[in-house]
Amino acid sequence: MKRTITLALCALIAAAPSFGWGRQGHATVARIAENHLTKTTRKALNEYLHGESIVEYASYADDYKSYIFLEGKRLFAHTYLVDENNQPYHYVTTPEGKPINNCVWVIDEFAKDLQANAKEMSDSLRWLKIVLIVHFVGDMHCPEHVRYPADNTIGKYKVLYRGQEIDYHYYWDELAISVKYPWSFSDVSYLFDRLPQKQIDEIVKGSPYDWGKENADICWYIHEVKPGSVIDGDFVNETKLLAKSQIQKAGYRLAHLLNKTFDPKYARKHKD
After folding, report:
1. Mind listing the pLDDT tens digit for each residue in 107-165?
2. Reported pTM
3. Residue 272 falls inside a structural domain
4. Which terminus of the chain is more solvent-facing, meaning fewer CB atoms within 10 Å of its CB: N or C?
5. pLDDT, tens digit, for every residue of 94-111?
6. Is 10 within a domain?
7. Domain that holds residue 237
């Protein structure tokens, strides 16, 4: 039986913490993606988002704390859980009905639904699914948004950074990019969006589940940082390339997914 998804919005919570790269990082992902949209995809998004850029809504899921309800149960989908082989789960509840954090599932399902049914959807539902895809593709590439069987903390513990106690998760949400690249998202996207097309073609291969497994494989080592650890300049320098690479991948993959969703010619050319 096909699962039913209902989407709802809660009120803006101004003091709530950021998730997955923060505003600068999410805007950078969206801007890189925008640079690689086909003409057909641009036209569709321009219609469905009423002339607004996807950058405008890159942090929408954080700003308004969008929640996904599955079979009457709330599902918080900014992170994703992997199994012992680092494979993201292909469902959003356990056999016992317990919700699983799974932005990968949401991205994959929403993109398929939009590709098949976008023209028949209500304007509000279509709009919401698009902006959630934009945000969650960024989220899934944030190193501390992977929930491992051996470490499900997503960095929600304290470390010392420049003499101050901070959440390790916060370091990856905000500081990993802003400390080394303290400029506007447009400047950062200009610096990051410089890979050759051949390399981009390799990056976008596969499905969101393939991307999720790759992320989990690559990002596990950052969990060597334990509660109370000191994050110093050496750590920042060592990990800045991981943060940059993950932002780049998120931007290119978001463009690829949107192009496959809204451009039939592109989709036929890029069958998985």
Report:
1. 999 999 999 999 999 998 999 899 999 999 999 999 999 999 999 999 999 999 999 99
2. 0.91
3. no
4. N
5. 778 777 889 999 999 999
6. yes
7. 5-265
